[in-house]
Structures are given as structure tokens and as C-alpha cells.
Amino acid sequence: MEALNIKVVELADFVAGPYCGKLLSDFGADVIKIERPGVGDRSRQAGPFKDDVPNPEASGTFLYLNTNKRSVTLDIEDEDDREILLGLLRDADVFIEDSMPGELARLGLGYEDLRRLNPRLVVTSITPFGQTGPYRDYKAHHLNLYHASGQGYLLPMWAVDLNVPPCQGPGYLGYFDGGMAAATATLAALFARDAGGRGQHVDISVQHAMMNQERSQLRRFFDDGVSPNRTGKGRLLESLVECKDGEFAVVILSSQQQWEGLWRAMGKPEWGMQPPFDTQKGRSDNYHALRLKLAEWARTVTQDELFHSVQREGSAAAPILTAEGVFGFEQYRARGHFVSIEHPVAGTLEYVRQPTRLPNVELPPLRPAPLLGQHNDDVLAGLVPSRTRAG
Amino acid sequence: MPGPLNGIRVIDFGHVLAGPWCSMQLASLGAEVIKVETRSRPDEQRAHHGSGVAANLESNSNFFEVNLGKKSVALDLTTARGKELAKALVATADIVLENMRPGVMTKLGLDYDELVKIKPDIIMLSLSGFGATGPLRRYAAYNPCFTSVGGVAHLTGYAEKRPNTMTNSGGDARAGTAAVFSALIALKFRQQTGKGQWIDSSSCEVINSMIGDQMMDFAMNGRSPRRHGNSDAIMAPHGVYRCAGEDEWISVAVGSEDEWVGLLRALGNPAWAGEARFATPRGRWENRAELDARLSEWAADKTYYQAMELLQAQGVPATPSFKAQDLFTDPHVLERGAVQDVEHPVLGKRTTIAPPYRFSDTPARIRSGAPLLGEDSEAVFGELLGLAPGEIAALVAEKVIY
Q: B residues 285-304 near A, CB within 8 Å?
């Protein structure tokens, strides 16, 4: 068995910071999660819960984001607990934190303090707007970040007009973008340290991480002289259709070749090879009429039939999957996209697995997310031998 | 100052979006990225514009956006000598990246099984829509397919409307970004164990893992969550409100008692705020339509910047729904250096988004513009592989270096 041979201390809440920690813990890093005594991570309250019965040990959001970590309860406002935290950081490799800029420095836990304590430490700070700049103290939830990044203004894509308000993305996708950028930068900093360097401070702005994901659209401001918006691109790209079974699918229309495959899958209707539908330009100029024809055809086939018949002709189409569709999707099953994990309170559940799989590393099986303070005795034993703590 | 991946070399067979996205970010972290491409079948992002086929392979601004900081060699991989040279490049490298359809690299004789013979600790990243194994491995997939199968399309948009396939490159962006993470995990393990790997990445799986939390309700209760626009299951008010400027919207999200009190201060403590039904989070959530109406009224005569400043001054999470133009001129974005100017011989000076990580010791940065096709052929084949100038000229004449 091999594991990422690093010790990580995570003082982070909800989604972005914990996802960064999960991206390390799932590869075997020893991630020690610091939680507030009695309360713990806010995602413990977020649910979903089995049968909607709230239980801080069995919140789906927490369970997913904290696999393979250990939990220790410390109150960083308490001087003794801060000493214990410093003890943990003395030989740690990484410290992930998401306090507002300046908060930790006030407690003697700022980067300069930690660098003196442990020059090999990589400190990764994840905040809405980063450690510097005029908005560094601004508050933001996921909704606000989605809109502050420029991604929200472009959704919902294909809005009929600008009276449809701009919209946030799905779930906590923006926080995941922030956590992904943070984990990537943390590994890069570790790589540099272990190639003859030293520890350093990594400053992640979730807003910036999200902006970066939208660069292909944002650059259109310089091409067109106006900001792109959510009403579509004036280009023939794709069409959403509703199928016979009430499920949705998307068909790709981006080239003549794509069209020909789709046309064959539709049973070669005559109109498809006659003007105006026989060229990209004609289909683009008559996009509305084209969509009606596609919709009419889609209502005669199921989502599954549409997907496979178009793909068999070499063109792209895809089913719009609900969570139920995801868990039933044969390709996901065949590739081991899910993993069963047994948790002492939540029981055995199927979780989405890390999409990065390393065939030449044999990782130990994943442990479930920790109970609040579950590892106080194990982790703190060496630091405070006489002390036993309860969650 | 060198970046954190200084000394790492990447041979990049990526094309279109997801692959280039990954290698561009590796370049920003300091890796030397050599893009292998050919004039006989140019990268689709060079060759296509929204309106059709481009006359100039150097003028596509989206190619620029995802190929910053790379070198380019022109090499036709369908020729025997081209394959040999590709292998010679791989022999000098740490990482190989490709996002051909599964099976194509095998046909070219350049799959992991071949490359590991040349460079035993090579890290190879293969990106595809559905992954390189499984019954659907040969299926075609573009961005809207990743977002659909990845489960995000169903969860995006307003509850009463149809699902939304999202913007037309977010899926590629996330597939590429996740591959940067994969490359770094593999590099870290190589540092630890001396072993490389082949990483077979499915864009659909990447996207789905980024809403893995949203899958838990099905795992627990057999229920599929639905899209809910800007609303939240607990917080209220939680939405966007129209401001005075053209298509200007302010987002406001109130999650705590402090934020609620701050909101009321910003609104001038209006009389209705004292009503009992707004006293608890649950009450505010149940009466959220009314709160939305009050906020819309308040926002209507303010610009979205004014609204943000007034609300943030009272500790209320509020941001404009920024447009592209705002982001390239916003004082915060500018002060943090989150955008920067980059010169390009054909496109001229472009402002673009800088790498999203700020390192205190080993800065990430855009080190150069996007390369011209084959711009570095002579330098790479001459200096790195030691080919004589005459040899290079002959390969150019034979359209191997092409």
C-alpha cells in the first residue's frame, strides 16, 4: 500500500477548503480536520439526510467532502487549543485554511508566524476574493461568487431574452473550482519544495479560479467589443430536445459531418437534405424551424434510443442525466465511477469516486468521513498526553 | 523567478480545448510545454471560427486563450519519421498529454505501452469524453455532452424551465483543470516512488465528481435533486435583483443573523423589517417572495456597483453579476493582477486572465503568448534532439516537419 506521504492540517469549512483537503486525503494524505467543539463543519448541518432527519454525523454534503480524513475538535479562540494546533503544524507539510484575511494573524497563526515555526510548511489560503485587493474583506456565498466571476451572467445559456435574470451554476460548482485550484497549487508548491525548495504561502481567490474557467467566453469581449450574454451565441452548436419518455437529451449540430450522422439516425428524412436544411448556413439561418423539426423527431424516441442511435452513426448526442440517471449509467458502472463506503452512522452508501485513478499506486481503501472529534485521542495523544477530549 | 514546475517538460499532443487547457496551466506553473501539431491537419481551434473555416491559422483568439506559454513544433505523426521524432521528444520528457479519441494513439504507435518503453517513468494523461475503457469509450463527446452526462445540465437553470447545458466551454475547462491536478498528483507520487503512470481521464466523470455532493440524496433516499435557479434551500433572501444600469443585476445572499441585521441597516431599517414573520431564518425563507420584491424595489435606482458597496459596507454578501467588460476593468481584479496583457504577432496586444494561484515563492505566470504553428521546430529538433540543420531542412522538404 502506498499513500501520498504528507501530513495536512485543514482548518476549513463547508465546501471549497474541504474539497481541497479531500483531493489530498483520497490519495492517502493524512488530513487532520480541525472542527469547532460541539458544532463542527457547517456542512454537517447542510444535508441531505436519510429520510430528512437531521443528524450532524450523517449529512450527505459533509460525508462526500470529508472522506478519508481525521477529525479533531479545537477552539482556535482558546489559547491552549491554539498551542495544540501549533504543535500539529510544527511537523505538518500543508495547512489549508479559509479564514477571512487577517483573522489568523490576529491569533498568532498568520503566515509569517507559521513560517518561523515550520519553514517547510505550505500554507494554502482559500477565500472569496484572495488575501489582497480592495474586496479582500468582502463577504460572499456561492451565489455571489458565481455572479462575481462572470460565469453567472452567462447563464442560463440560450435565455430567450434579457428579462430572464442571470443564474448561478449547479450545486456548489464554483466552490469546487476554488478547491480544485487550491489543491493543484498546493501540490505544485509541495513538488517545488521537495525538489530543493522551501515552504510558501499560496493565496487562492475563488473568484479568480472561477473567472479562469470562463476565459473562452470572457475573451469574446475583446473580439466583439461587447460583453457576451446569456441569450446565445448566434451560432449553430447544439439543441436540447425532449424525448418520448419525458427525459431530455442534447444533439450536437456544430458541423456538416455531425449533421449527416444525426440525419441518418433520424431515418434520413427528406427535408434534411433539402434547402434550407442541407447546409450549415441554412440550418443556422433557420435554427428555430430546425429546432421544431428536431423536437418533433425526439418525441418519437426514448432518451436511450436517441443517444445510441445518433452515436452509432458517429455523431455526438448525450442524455441529460438526473442523479438517478447517473447512478444507472452503464459506462459509469463499467469504469468504477462509484465506491461503497460504510459509515458508522450513515451506513453503507455509494459515493462518486475520484475521477483521477492511478494504476501504478495501490491506495488503501477509503475510510468514511470522520465523526466530530473522532480522532482526538489518536491525534492529540503525543501533544497533550494527559488530556482526553470529547467532541 | 522560476515557477514550481521549473525543469518539468511536457510533450503535448492536445488539440481543441480540454487537452490544451491542461497543458497551458502546466506551462503557467513553469513547465516547458512543447505542443506537437501539424499543418496537414491543424488544431481545430486554429482552423475554425464561429462563422466557418479560418484563412489564417494564427488569428483565432480562443486558440490563443488556451495555448499561452507553450512552444510549438510542426510534426506530421502519420509519417514514420514523424512518429520516431515524437518518441525522441517523449524520451526527454516527464509528462505526455493527449486528448485524441480513445484508440487513436494506439493506431499511431504512441500509446502508453509504447511510450513507457522509451521513458519508463513517463506520466501520460489521456483525456476523453467517456474514458478509454467501457462500452461507450468510442462515443463522441463535446462540451454539452460532458455537462449532460456529468449531471450538471439537469441542475442548471430555473426550476420551471428546461435543463441547461451551460456555457459552451466550462466542461472542457474543468476537464482540463482536473487533468492539471492529475498531473501533479502523479508527479508527487513519482517523486515519492520513482514510478510514472497512465491516467485515463473521462470528462463526464470529472464533471460529475464536482457535483458529487448533489448525488448523495439519491444514494441515501433514491431522490434526484432538481435545478433551483438562484434560490437556496435554507437562505433567504437569496437571489439577483435588477439595478438601474442596462442589464445590471446584484446578487444578494443572507445566511446568518449578522447578515440579516446588516441588510436591514443597508436598507435603512424599514418598518416592515420588524414584522414577526421575518424574525427567524425559517420565516424569511417562507416569505422569500416578499423579501425579493422589497430588494428589487431597493435595487432599482442604484447601479450594481453602488448596491455592492452599500451592502458590503454592512457585511452583507452581495456582488454584481459581472459582465466580461467589468472583470477586465474592475479595481479588485486589476490590483490583484488577475488579468494581464500579452503580445501576439497577429492578434496584437490582448488582455487575458492570469493563472489563478498566487505563490509567495515560485510565481505562476503567463510566460509568452500562444505559439505560431511550428515556431519552435528548429530550436527543439536542433537543440533538444540534436538534428543537424541539413537534416531538419530535408524533413521540412519531405513534409515530416510540417
A: none
Give the residue among B227, B211, B251 at the shortest CA–CA distance from B161. B227
Mean of per-residue pLDDT scores for chain B: 96
Residue B309 has pLDDT above 80, yes or no: yes
**Residue B28 in contact with partner chain A when CB distance is under 8 A:** no
Cα–Cα distance list, A111 to A12, A31, A94, A108, B319 (Å)? 16, 19, 12, 9, 28
Percent residues over pLDDT 70 in chain B = 99
- Write down the pLDDT at residue A390: 46
Q: How does pLDDT run across A111-143, given as a tens digit for each residue?
A: 999 999 999 999 999 999 999 999 999 999 999
Number of neighbours of residue A54 by Cβ within 10 angstroms: 11
Chain-chain contact of B362 with A280 (C-beta, under 8 angstroms): no
Host H or E run for residue B33: strand B32-37
Quick one: three-class SS letters along chain A?
CCCCCCEEEEECCCCHHHHHHHHHHCCCCEEEEEECCCCCCHHHCCCCCHHHCCCCCCCHHHHHHCCCEEEEECCCCCHHHHHHHHHHHHCCCEEEECCCCCHHHHCCCCHHHHHHHCCCCEEEEEECCCCCCCCCCCCCCHHHHHHHCCCHHHCCCCCCCCCCCCCCCCCCHHHHHHHHHHHHHHHHHHHHHHCCCCCCEEEEEHHHHHHHHCHHHHCHHHHHCCCCCCCCCCCCCEEEEECCCCCEEEEECCCHHHHHHHHHHCCCCHHHHCCCCCCHHHHHHCHHHHHHHHHHHHCCCCHHHHHHHHHHCCCCEEECCCHHHHHHCHHHHHCCCEEEEEECCCEEEEEECCCCCCCCCCCCCCCCCCCCCCCHHHHHCCCCCCCCCCC
pLDDT digits (tens, 9 = 90+) for B276-291: 999 999 999 999 999 9
Q: Which residues in chain A are contacts of B222 at CB distance < 8 A? A: 324
Contact B220 A349 (CB under 8 A): yes
Distance CA A21, CA A17 (A): 6
Residue from B73, B7, B1, B77 nearest B36 by CA:
B73
Distance from CA of A348 to the nearest CA of B (A): 9
Residues of chain A with CATH 3.40.50.10540: 7-213+333-380
pLDDT greater than 60 at residue B88: yes
Query: Which of A154, A188, A311 is opposite residue B167, by nearest beta carbon?
Result: A154
Contacts of B191 in chain A (CB under 8 A): 191, 194-195
B69 touches chain A (CB under 8 A): no
- Does B166 score more than 90 pLDDT? no
CATH 3.30.1540.10, chain A: domain bounds: 248-321
For B288-315, what is the mean pLDDT?
98
Cα angle B305, B311, B313 (rounded to 5 degrees) comes to 100
For A248-321, CATH gives 3.30.1540.10
DSSP per-residue string spanning B306-335:
HHHHHHHTTT--EEE---HHHHHH-HHHHH
B residues 70-129 near A, CB within 8 Å?
Answer: none
Complex ipTM value: 0.98
- State whether A323 and B215 contact (CB < 8 Å): yes
Name the band, by pLDDT with cuts 50, 70 and 90, for residue A391: very low
Q: What percent of chain B has pLDDT over 90?
A: 95
- Calpha distance A329→B146 (Å, rounded): 13
CB of B225 closer than 8 Å to CB of B217: yes
Question: In this complex, which of A23, A148, A218 lies closest to B324 when CB atoms are compared?
Answer: A218
Number of H helices, E strands in chain B: 18, 14
Kindly report the CATH class assigned to A7-213+333-380: alpha beta
